[in-house]
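Hey Z.,

So I finally got round to the cytidine-5'-monophosphate thing we talked about over coffee. Here's the setup:
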Amino acid sequence: MTAGSDPRLIVALDFPSAAPAEALAERLDPATCRLKVGKELFTRVGPGLVERLQGRGFGVFLDLKYHDIPATVAGACRAATELGVWMVNVHALGGRDMLEAAREAVVQGGGSRPLLTAVTVLTSHDAATLAEIGLAGSPREAVMRLAGLAREAGLDGVVCSPEEAAALGERFGGELLRVTPGIRPAGSAGGDQQRIAQPAQAVAAGCDYLVVGRPITAADDPGVAAAAVAAEIDAAS
Ligand code: C5P
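And the result:
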């Protein structure tokens, strides 16, 4: 797979306003990467920014992790579909009916639709915090259970850590795309990420799309940094 046909690199635009996000986009190539817009940027700037990024040719991953009653999540997924985003996500903890409603909403428009992915267990959770909120089993067991639910509900994939990617591949094969943050090119700081992998390691673990934020957004030359990560992904593919 070449970078141009389906870029596997997703650059996280974790900025508090549109100006730095658009300045970064100017330095990136839509043939090499897609862009992730999350809660802070979207809440501050809204869909207009998504439209402008798409107008520059970028596929956008709208990372808003919807989690609500099925009708509400379906409405949000319809709105994301109409916005034309490349990927949108929900929390698998919303349950089967919510996941199925989300799936229905994105396929309803026919034609080109966003990929629909699910967050299983937040990487900020450990066994103790899961027990506190009443979730049975280890984080790994909960990830597998919720990924199975997402697959049964017809979702396209899950957001997972590099460590979970291989186990998910063994269990579900190619039936669930794996979208993976916590990627750090050799020599870059891990920062607050606990479970990290280099791009080639993530590809070897079966990750389909790699989310990279600060190693690119904080680089002296983000365009060069993004091209280097994309080249490492390509070489390992
Ligand atoms: O800067 P960095 O590469 O750590 O950014 C990773 C991006 O992926 C951030 O937008 C972060 O919110 C997101 N993310 C994550 N871990 C998850 C889910 C999303 O780091 N489990």
